[in-house]
Design goal:
Elements lengths: L2 H24 L7 H5 L2 H21 L2 H24 L5 H15 L1 H4 L7 H15 L10 H11 L2 H14 L7 H21 L2 H21 L4 H22 L9 H17 L1
Length: 275
């Protein structure tokens, strides 16, 4: 290792140690922050998800300063979770870092061992086989479909999980013969949702809403569309139109009538379409 590289590594480790010390101070009963002291792994879970999405958004923008900042926010969640766990004698940040390093070494025998690979597909196959062995599971080829789909449902965002589950189910033949069957299912679920809203309990309404959304995702899959990207685009367009509306008014939107808001909405929509 060159002297320059060693210096860089030392500075990196020093910066990480400073972050660890700051988080420990925030969690200290003696002069710490009341908000940080009140947090648990469970209450912090929404922030882990939020920060991960903000990292993705920053990467999409390509803004290096934003990416660095959002990665820092995500790193804070890792350090904070490890700090709380260490306070309860569960595990430390050192164990977290050591564990992921050992996992990477085990799952890359073509880099750290004597295994030879000829393609990215072989790397992926080796990874899945080693992963299954570590968890005491059957190999990816022999694992039951329900086991795979259950994992997707537990670990992925709902829209992504629904798409993944339906793709894997379709791959083994659990699929409609044509798009007409998918549309029929959508209309069936829409009718059941409407009926539930009129007659059923909130629990049944929630269940039927889920069925309807799953049917919409099947339509997206059949047309090679990404429902997450589609919804994200709609969210962005909605906010952009509100921004245009607020740019031309001189009082809060809540002061306008519904007809006035609709006119402003259509004006904003037309303006954005020209840009």
């Amino acid at each position: 290792m060159t002297e320059e590289k060693a210096l860089s590594n030392g500075e990196t480790l020093a910066a990480l140690q400073e972050l660890i010390d700051v988080v420990a101070k925030l969690r200290s009963p003696d002069g710490g922050c009341p908000w940080d002291l009140a947090q648990t792994p469970q209450t912090l879970t929404p922030y882990v998800i939020e920060e991960a999405y903000e990292v993705v958004d920053a990467i999409k923008t390509g803004n290096k300063e934003a990416i660095a900042e959002e990665l820092g926010d995500l790193l804070l969640q890792v350090v904070l979770q490890a700090q709380i766990a260490s306070e309860y004698g569960q595990f430390s940040l050192q164990e977290v870092a050591k564990g992921i390093s050992q996992k990477l070494i085990r799952r890359h025998p073509h880099v750290f061992g004597d295994v030879s690979v000829n393609s990215v597909d072989e790397v992926r196959q080796n990874w899945e086989q080693i992963k299954a062995a570590e968890k005491g599971e059957s190999s990816a080829q022999n694992q039951k479909l329900s086991e795979k789909l259950s994992r997707y449902g537990r670990t992925l965002p709902p829209l992504t999980a629904a798409m993944k589950i339906s793709q894997k189910a379709a791959a083994v033949g659990f699929e409609w013969e044509n798009i007409d069957g998918v549309w029929a299912k959508f209309h069936e679920e829409l009718q059941e949702f409407q009926q539930a809203l009129a007659e059923e309990t909130p629990e049944r309404q929630q269940a039927e809403l889920g069925d309807l959304l799953f049917a919409v995702i099947q339509l997206a899959r059949w047309h090679n569309l990404d429902p997450s990207e589609g919804l994200q685009g709609t969210n962005q367009r909605f906010v952009q139109r509100l921004q245009k509306m607020e740019a031309v008014v001189n009082r809060p939107l809540s002061d306008y009538s519904l007809d006035e808001l609709e006119a402003l909405w259509q004006q904003a929509k037309a303006q954005l379409a020209k840009e």
